[in-house]
Design a protein that fits this description.
It is a single chain. The protein is an alpha+beta fold. It has one domain: Hypothetical protein apc22750. Chain B (Translation Initiation Factor IF3, 2-Layer Sandwich). 35% of the residues lie in helices and 43% in strands. A 4-stranded mixed β-sheet has the order 1-3-4-2. Strand 3 and strand 4 form a beta hairpin. The longest helix has 24 residues.
Length: 107
């Protein structure tokens, strides 16, 4: 599955638009991870516990988006984007979304 942030894919044409597609995940750090992250905020620098969590969450959101696009009969997703928000103070929601399309190479 080709996933791009652009509206067009060079060398391909969109044969049909299958519709909006998305993948969602909600993540929370455990108490130990939150404690370590809190200590890091005192001294500064990257908070690797959260970086790793958010990278994994984005990957899961993309995987779910691709699975949904496959179920719609698409072979590509154009205009892919991410959105995130906090739920309370302990959870992060990550959404990957785009437009599921059927593409074919230009002849």
């Amino acid at each position: 599955m080709l996933v791009v942030t652009t509206e067009n894919i060079p060398g391909y044409r969109v044969m049909s638009v299958k519709g909006q597609v998305y993948g969602v995940t909600v993540r929370s750090r455990g108490v130990g991870g939150n404690f370590m992250a809190s200590l890091r905020t005192i001294f500064g620098g990257e908070i690797t516990e959260y970086t790793v969590m958010l990278e994994q969450a984005r990957r899961h959101a993309i995987d779910r988006m691709v699975k949904n696009a496959n179920m719609m009969g698409a072979n590509a997703i154009i205009m892919a984007r991410f959105d995130s928000s906090e739920i309370g103070q302990m959870m992060s929601e990550i959404v990957a979304y785009g437009t599921a399309v059927l593409i074919e190479p230009l002849s």
